[in-house]
């Protein structure tokens, strides 16, 4: 059955469920829900609702399921793959009122939070208890923790502390049927049937709507050291990444930045930094722990590795302020690139020792297709964000050549043992590239899983799985 | 369509696929494949095959899928939930010839292995390269790494290093259709569609047969300290567990053992240990790292926490030999319990601060139903193995009362936020208890996932999901 528009009578029922003040239908007010941070895409929902309880979402889902109305869940709207865009119209469920930290359980080192809590607010709340929740994407100041779950979001500290998968223990989820389930248990280990918790992570709102989250917390390291290393080529900087791990060190962050990105961020964010001639690529390396002596020992090992890999200069941050300045440089890079040029961001990920080949190849592909790029990312994970910049490219070339160039970048990524996205997801904009990595057999498994959760295909249609239709 | 028996002509085709010498049909030779380590269950397969390549398994699966013949994959046969038992007869695929470590990639700190590699052999092979694969179940000397994946197996070091989920990057899987896929990419992060890799972990051979495994490796800590702490009650020992984490320490192992288990293991394995009067419960606490000073600092903190929680005596192992002896005590506990009595093992897991309530409740339930129990396990994870021992219980009581007692133990576990199994799986023997934790809605999602992979239900039937039929 094709998707149905939202009738006046159904819109009225939405109001009965969530209250009239939490239903948006005015075109101007819908605008803010029509885009995320993915380039300049715009898709208007017919109606936005702002529920406050799982039971309200359950009622909404039952109604939409019955009437085959597309439903798109939305977190903080900071997504970079268009996954929160209501491409088929219909209802958009904004999770903004699910903004409570329910408990921080210091006995068990667990917390239960609602999905609309801003990630940084949660990080700060557990920090006050002396604890660490180490999943901190660059957008942490505005993204929602539920969106992080739905996208398998990462951030710089994944390299030491593990991915978001390692921190989520249990999820309350409203299914397209309206049924409310808990996916697992509040336990650190789980071998009790298919792991629906893990299946939800990275499912981009296509299987169910997350309404409560139980996460693991860990004790907070008391000390850290931060270094910025300069290299004269991208390849040298990237080669040093895997060398650091091979020397027996697991940094708590290992970030790569290209010179162009650093230039732009200095200009955009007025960061004080002495950018030397010949410094073409940078690694931001952090180690943390409880014993400062250990950290200095590790810093010495890292220093030696950096030197052996052609590093021309190492800056050891000597104050909290300088650490914050260096981190700000890295975190503000995305927005400073965005402010400088029309761009298209891809989120490549490869085994980390393949980074030199990846970045070399990206630049070669750029030469063929006539585009430049600014690369940065979580190099310790092999995760490189590639910002293809329009620069002086003509609109016509940008329209016609970009897709082929991106395709070649993904082909390279896959050939190096990598995949299309490490943490931004597939959503709308990477969907067409999925066949570069996966077969129809793979897609059919995905379609079968989707069907088990959402037989009418109402939830976040048009995302992730090529050609999944209702 | 009901399951079909294996005809002579199909058995002949098996021989064509894997070679006659790799097909077992003789009843006596089938016996070794008719049981695992789960109590005294025995289910004979009709035929056992020992393929050597994914392509052979693909051919076998196509044939069995076409003729609706049940297929049970089998690893090392060390399972504790009966998941490898061919309860519907049919074909058993033994993975014993998939025993090659294909590559240990020191550049990327990854390894590619076949699923029939014995876990300890793999651990030792990476150790020779100065690396660590920290997933080491007690059965590591005979279990297969593929079985570990299929069951979400754990072991003592999960508490610091993360579960097996954090180490598996990519899996080659043969589906019931005979199609061969890779579930993901060889990358540390992954946000590229439903995570089929994670879905396979803990799926107990019901979705596909794992034929290659890519795992993450980490650098090896150079030092460790091991302590054995004695307590006069189980509850005190269990309460100290969460207190250690709250003091900011993450031990590399934190194991609980009851006195009875220690007595039996001393007797069974001739371990030299001065078991003092009044020492009723023990914690084995390990810390590891690169800096011995840090470890001694951590040991002091732990010591204080233990004392504050009523610990009567702490033994700090002063030699490698003593460490090995203490670890052997813990590892041999399962088999020594088994040698002492008819028993039934359950694998409860709760949030770790609920352990005192769990163990207290288990003993109370035992008093009601007239059974004793010996408990031990990975207390740092909240994972308690409960060995219900028959002892002097009459056969009649053992048969009639045991199930109700186990049911009460699981009800208690679930009420404490836990679940049925942390690392042993559901398999055959825990299946009937699944409704204590999960609803029909949950089971229907599991059935839908199963259907997407295995529409005819040929793969490992009769396991995990209640009432899943073909």
Using the 3D structure, state the CATH architecture of the largest domain in chain A.
2-Layer Sandwich
Low-confidence stretches of chain A: none
Give the CATH level 1 class of the largest domain in chain A: Alpha Beta
Largest sheet of chain A: 7 strands, antiparallel
Mean pLDDT of chain A: 96
Q: Looking across the biggest beta sheet of chain A, what order are the strands in?
A: 15-12-14-13-17-18-16
With helices defined by DSSP (H or I, 4 residues minimum), what is the helix count of chain A?
15
Quick recap:
The radius of gyration of chain A is 23 Å and the shape is globular. The first copy, chain A, has helices spanning 8-18, 27-30, 54-67, 119-127, 145-151, 158-161, 196-200, 234-246, 259-269, 292-308, 320-331, 333-340, 355-369, 395-415, 440-453, and strands spanning 23-24, 47-49, 71-74, 91-94, 101-105, 110-113, 131-132, 168-174, 180-182, 209-216, 218-219, 223-231, 253-258, 281-289, 313-316, 343-349, 372-378, 383-389. The first copy, chain A, is of the alpha+beta class and 470 residues long.
């Amino acid at each position: 059955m094709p998707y149905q528009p939202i009738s006046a009578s159904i819109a009225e029922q939405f109001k009965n469920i969530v209250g009239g003040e939490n239903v948006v239908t005015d075109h101007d007010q819908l605008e803010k829900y029509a885009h995320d941070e993915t380039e300049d895409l715009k898709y208007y929902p017919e109606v936005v609702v702002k529920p406050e309880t799982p039971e309200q979402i359950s009622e909404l889902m039952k109604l939409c399921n019955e009437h085959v109305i597309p439903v798109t869940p939305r977190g903080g709207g900071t997504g970079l793959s268009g996954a929160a865009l209501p491409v088929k119209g219909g209802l958009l469920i904004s999770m903004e009122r699910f903004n409570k930290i329910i408990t921080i359980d210091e006995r068990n080192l667990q917390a239960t939070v609602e999905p609309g809590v801003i990630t940084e607010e949660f990080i700060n709340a557990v920090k006050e208890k002396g604890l660490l929740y180490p999943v901190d994407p660059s957008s942490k100041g505005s993204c929602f923790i539920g969106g992080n779950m739905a996208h398998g979001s990462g951030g710089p500290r994944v390299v030491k502390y593990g991915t978001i998968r390692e921190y989520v223990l249990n999820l309350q989820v409203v299914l397209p049927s309206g049924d409310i389930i808990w996916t697992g248990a509040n336990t650190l280990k789980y071998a009790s049937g298919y792991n629906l918790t893990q299946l939800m992570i990275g499912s981009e709102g296509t299987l169910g709507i997350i309404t409560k989250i139980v996460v693991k917390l860990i004790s907070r390291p008391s000390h850290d050291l931060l270094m910025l290393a300069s290299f004269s080529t991208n390849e040298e900087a990237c080669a040093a990444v895997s060398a650091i791990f091979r020397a027996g060190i697991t940094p708590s962050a290992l970030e790569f930045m290209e010179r162009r990105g650093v230039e732009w961020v200095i200009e955009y964010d007025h960061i004080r930094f002495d950018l030397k001639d010949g410094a073409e690529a940078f690694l931001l390396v952090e180690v943390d722990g409880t014993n400062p002596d250990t950290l200095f020992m590790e810093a010495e090992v890292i220093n030696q590795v950096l030197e052996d890999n052609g590093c021309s200069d190492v800056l050891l941050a000597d104050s909290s302020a300088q650490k914050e300045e260096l981190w700000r440089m890295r975190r503000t890079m995305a927005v400073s690139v965005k402010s400088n040029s029309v761009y298209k961001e891809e989120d490549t990920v490869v085994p980390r020792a393949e980074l030199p080949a990846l970045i070399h190849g990206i630049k070669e592909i750029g030469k063929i297709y006539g585009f430049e790029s600014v690369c940065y990312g979580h190099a310790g994970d092999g995760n490189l964000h590639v910002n293809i910049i329009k620069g002086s490219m003509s609109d016509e070339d940008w329209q016609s050549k970009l897709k082929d160039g991106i395709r070649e970048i993904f082909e390279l990524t896959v050939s190096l043992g990598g995949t299309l996205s490490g943490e931004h997801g597939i959503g709308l904009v990477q969907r067409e590239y999925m066949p570069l990595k996966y077969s129809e057999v793979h897609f059919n498994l995905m379609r079968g899983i989707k069907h088990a959760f959402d037989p009418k295909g109402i939830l976040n249609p048009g995302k992730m799985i090529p050609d999944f239709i209702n």
